[in-house]
């Protein structure tokens, strides 16, 4: 009788341990939502006017920008890479858009005495092509020349930022109201317009997020991205074109960065070459906080969106509380470190649970 009782007691202890482990894993899995609720609740009480309609619209615009960058960054990280150039791509594409709105393209070098002007759609397409082109260059450096992603994108960070400065000799392109005669007067709608009560930039983020989530979870392309990040050699042996996948993710990241450059220049109705500085930190923080593993092979667009909300609310809330920008940078760094540490803890717990299940 005693042996049966003892065995029963052991099973009860083991069962209780498993339930606690499962609860902890669930909490770690939901950590981004928990962080979002805590951050939102804190600033709702601590920051004056945080819950006003005007501030919520401002926050939503900032979140949309962070989310767009983070979606592109998520694809890159899931594929086993990193893209440090996204902030500089934002600045360069903003300068390209501003230049085209103000001046068009001067054809004087062809002996033609006028400039080529563009409407809003054409301006946006050109800026997006520039972003995709830089992403393509990143992909070529990594796949064809075997340059490490960190070094390749660090180099293009400097090149793109320098090109943005050269566009105007470091000056700002102001008053981007556009010209109705050329159809560029609607450029301001991208960053300042609203639809159904929400900023257009938020709708752009929603559309990109839905498309990205669909491709990530419902298409062979998405499965190949996860396969490359999880086991690149195994993916190659199974027939996946690894180079093509890497080219795609960096081009997509460049596209997302170009969208942010268009949104910011449209919203401010001005383009400055320093636009987008340190934006790569926000993108990485949102992706990692949303559950994307820095080792590749794991991450979700939905989690990244929630992570972008956390980063956006955190940044705006700190500003409203009067916290200096220096401390904000420190806090963002701590958020990235904490997110990586928590991710490692979650992976170790999951591995332990699998071992226990196999042992039993």
UniProtKB/TrEMBL annotation:
<feature type="transmembrane region" description="Helical">
    <location>
        <begin position="32"/>
        <end position="51"/>
    </location>
</feature>
<keyword id="KW-0472">Membrane</keyword>
<keyword id="KW-1133">Transmembrane helix</keyword>
<feature type="transmembrane region" description="Helical">
    <location>
        <begin position="63"/>
        <end position="82"/>
    </location>
</feature>
<feature type="transmembrane region" description="Helical">
    <location>
        <begin position="189"/>
        <end position="216"/>
    </location>
</feature>
<dbReference type="InterPro" id="IPR001851">
    <property type="entry name" value="ABC_transp_permease"/>
</dbReference>
<dbReference type="Pfam" id="PF02653">
    <property type="entry name" value="BPD_transp_2"/>
</dbReference>
<feature type="transmembrane region" description="Helical">
    <location>
        <begin position="247"/>
        <end position="264"/>
    </location>
</feature>
<keyword id="KW-0812">Transmembrane</keyword>
<protein>
    <submittedName>
        <fullName>Erythritol ABC transporter membrane protein</fullName>
    </submittedName>
</protein>
<feature type="transmembrane region" description="Helical">
    <location>
        <begin position="148"/>
        <end position="168"/>
    </location>
</feature>
<keyword id="KW-0813">Transport</keyword>
<feature type="transmembrane region" description="Helical">
    <location>
        <begin position="123"/>
        <end position="142"/>
    </location>
</feature>
<feature type="transmembrane region" description="Helical">
    <location>
        <begin position="88"/>
        <end position="111"/>
    </location>
</feature>
<dbReference type="GO" id="GO:0005886">
    <property type="term" value="C:plasma membrane"/>
</dbReference>
<dbReference type="GO" id="GO:0022857">
    <property type="term" value="F:transmembrane transporter activity"/>
</dbReference>
<feature type="transmembrane region" description="Helical">
    <location>
        <begin position="301"/>
        <end position="319"/>
    </location>
</feature>
<keyword id="KW-1003">Cell membrane</keyword>
<keyword id="KW-0997">Cell inner membrane</keyword>
């Amino acid at each position: 009788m005693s042996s049966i009782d003892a065995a029963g007691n052991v099973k009860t202890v083991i069962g209780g341990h498993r339930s606690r482990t499962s609860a902890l894993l669930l909490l770690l899995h939901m950590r981004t939502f928990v962080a979002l609720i805590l951050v939102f609740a804190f600033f709702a009480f601590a920051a004056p006017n945080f819950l006003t309609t005007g501030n919520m619209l401002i926050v939503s615009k900032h979140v949309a920008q962070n989310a767009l960058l983070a979606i592109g960054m998520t694809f890159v990280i899931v594929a086993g890479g990193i893209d440090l150039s996204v902030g500089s791509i934002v600045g360069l594409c903003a300068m390209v858009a501003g230049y085209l709105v103000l001046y068009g393209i001067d054809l004087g070098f062809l002996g033609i005495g006028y400039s080529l002007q563009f409407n809003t759609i054409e301006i946006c397409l050109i800026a997006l092509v520039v972003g995709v082109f830089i992403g393509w260059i990143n992909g070529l450096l990594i796949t064809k020349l075997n340059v490490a992603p960190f070094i390749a994108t660090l180099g293009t960070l400097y090149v793109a930022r320098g090109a943005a400065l050269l566009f105007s000799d470091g000056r700002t392109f102001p008053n981007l109201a556009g010209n109705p005669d050329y159809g560029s007067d609607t450029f301001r709608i991208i960053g300042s317009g609203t639809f159904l009560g929400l900023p257009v930039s938020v709708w752009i983020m929603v559309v990109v997020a839905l498309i990205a989530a669909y491709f990530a979870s419902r298409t062979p392309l998405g499965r190949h991205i996860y396969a490359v990040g999880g086991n690149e050699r195994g993916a190659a042996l199974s027939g996946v074109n690894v180079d093509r996948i890497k080219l795609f993710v960096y081009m997509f990241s460049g596209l997302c960065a170009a969208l942010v450059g268009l949104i910011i220049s449209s919203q401010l109705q001005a383009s400055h070459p320093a636009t987008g500085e340190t934006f790569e930190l926000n993108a990485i923080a949102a992706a990692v906080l949303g559950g994307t593993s820095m080792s590749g092979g794991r991450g979700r667009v939905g989690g990244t969106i929630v992570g972008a909300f956390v980063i956006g609310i955190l940044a705006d809330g700190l500003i409203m509380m009067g916290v200096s920008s220096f401390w904000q940078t420190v806090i963002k760094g701590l958020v990235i470190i904490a997110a990586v540490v928590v991710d490692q803890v979650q992976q170790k717990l999951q591995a332990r649970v699998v071992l226990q299940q196999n042992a039993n």
